[in-house]
Amino acid sequence: MKKTSFPKQDIRVLLLEGVSASAVETFKAAGYSQIEFHEKSLPDAELRRRIADAHLVGIRSRTQLDAATLESAKRLIAVGCFCIGTNQVDLAAAQGLGVPVFNAPYSNTRSVAELVLAEAILLMRRIPQKNAQCHRGGWSKSAAGSYEVRGKVLGIVGYGHIGTQVGLLAEGLGMRVLFHDVESKLTLGNAQAAAALDDLLERADVVTLHVPETPQTRLMIGAAQLARMRPGACLINASRGTVVDIDALAAALRTGHIAGAAIDVFPVEPKGNEDAFVSPLVGMDNVILTPHVGGSTLEAQDNIGIEVAAKLVRYSDNGSTLSAVNFPEVTLPEHPHSRRLLHIHRNTPGMLSRINELFSRENVNIDGQYLQTSPSIGYVVIDVSTSEPQAAALKEALAQIPGTLRTRVLY
Ligand SMILES: NC(=O)C1=CN([C@@H]2O[C@H](COP(=O)(O)OP(=O)(O)OC[C@H]3O[C@@H](n4cnc5c(N)ncnc54)[C@H](O)[C@@H]3O)[C@@H](O)[C@H]2O)C=CC1
Ligand SMILES: O=C(O)C(=O)COP(=O)(O)O
After folding, report:
1. 1 in a domain, yes or no?
2. Quick one: which of 55, 150, 256, 281 could link to 174 by a disulfide (CB 3.0–4.6 Å)?
């Protein structure tokens, strides 16, 4: 790996929300030494203070990086979400600032799928209420209302990475799988696509939600959808708290129309383990409540730590945006004798010719170049044969091109 122009020991890494130690190890192994680690998310004012000097920031699902916070992070190079969801980051604002955002799209899917499957079994057996009764000294040995999952219908809303794994595991237990997705999906195993969400709700014994947080999924399960579910059916939500109208769910659980629920994510979640958890579902025996731990296994966290830290290191060291969620994907092999410049710009006509004119005017040979664009921005990595001082001068000249968002000399 080449020596970077901006010394690695000056790059500040801010890691929040107790990301795995494997992330810290990955940064250290890559030569980064300024690593600030926090066990939990920070209050807004402190977040703005800490992020002001940070070059690389790592968060999980709790930390909100809105446009104002991102704008206050003047040195920010890239953001890593050490999780799947990226709804907590204003991705468009980050893009407009020339900041790529990375995540770990697969590392915790199995953990969520296993938890969901276990919950489906526990709910169908009415174990949450029996467990609560026993803890209170009660004893109600009865088969009433208890069912095997074998032969029952599992309705999966959002048939993506997690939804498909849940479906395959459920089939292994003999469940019949029905799914609903907005995209047309390859069906795995013996799963069947439902005609529509309502169709799934009307047929499933257990409904499990695996959609991302978007304007379309906000409150997609409200009073009307709960009413469509079969009497005595169960609901599992390990996606995002905004997807379910939690008051409507509490009401449906009280009437018994919904027999049980397992909820891992909430519209409002505590910032840290010291803060109180408040929810209309607290105290209901037929509800499994978990503190957003669907993806919290040691295996998943360890893998996520390595995966996301490696993506941040790769971007910082060689400019690769491969698998960024809000950025054109660019990766260029190293040219052994070249210097590398990065240019992030608004996607306007003639930008590449203006960039290349500059190099031809200065009589600098381009050894390699890779441009990718999204509708609003372009990202070009340029390897050139030039001296260190000339590379610095070229960077300044590139920065003057109208529409430039960011420019860096990497090495
Ligand atoms: N509880 C936890 O700890 C965890 C929660 N999650 C949540 O689970 C979500 C899903 O994760 P993945 O399966 O990896 O995502 P994914 O992107 O692979 O799958 C999501 C699926 O939902 C579908 N979808 C989107 N909008 C929809 C709509 N309005 N109606 C129906 N389907 C819709 C998509 O087409 C896609 O197939 C994440 O976005 C995250 O919010 C993820 C990991 C851990
Ligand atoms: O991966 C996700 O999207 C999750 O919801 C897990 O979030 P966490 O890292 O546990 O805060």
Report:
1. no
2. 150
DSSP 190-252: T-EE-SSHHHHHHH-SEEEE-----TTTTT-B-HHHHHHSPTTEEEEE-S-GGGB-HHHHHHH
E strand or H helix at 371, and its extent?
A: strand 365-373
Q: Catalytic one among 110, 126, 240, 339?
A: 240
Amino acid identity at 39:
E
Q: Which atom number of ligand 2 is nearest to the Cα of residue 304? A: 9
Asked which of 289, 317, 345 is the last residue of a domain, the reply is 289
167 part of a folded domain: yes
Q: Which residues sit with their C-beta closer than 6 Å to ligand 2?
A: 60-62, 83-85, 108, 292, 295-296
Verify that 152 and 280 share a domain, yes or no: yes
Q: How far apart are CA 309 and CA 331, in angstroms?
A: 17
Q: How many domains does the chain have?
A: 3
pTM, two decimal places: 0.94
Q: Do both 285 and 304 map to the same domain?
A: no
- The answer to whether 271 and 246 are in contact (CB under 8 A) is no
ipTM of the complex: 0.99
Which of these is catalytic: 269, 329, 335, 346?
269
Gap from CA of 34 to ligand 2 centroid (Å): 25
pLDDT tens over the chain, length 411 residues:
567 778 888 999 999 999 999 999 999 999 999 999 999 899 999 999 999 999 999 999 999 999 999 999 999 999 999 999 999 999 999 999 999 999 999 999 999 999 999 999 999 999 999 999 999 999 999 999 999 999 999 999 999 999 999 999 999 999 999 999 999 999 999 999 999 999 999 999 999 999 999 999 999 999 999 999 999 999 999 999 999 999 999 999 999 999 999 999 999 999 888 899 999 999 999 999 999 999 999 999 999 999 999 999 999 999 999 999 999 999 988 888 899 999 999 999 999 999 999 999 999 999 999 999 999 999 999 999 999 999 999 999 999 999 999 999 999
Q: What is the CATH number of the domain that holds 378?
A: 3.30.70.260
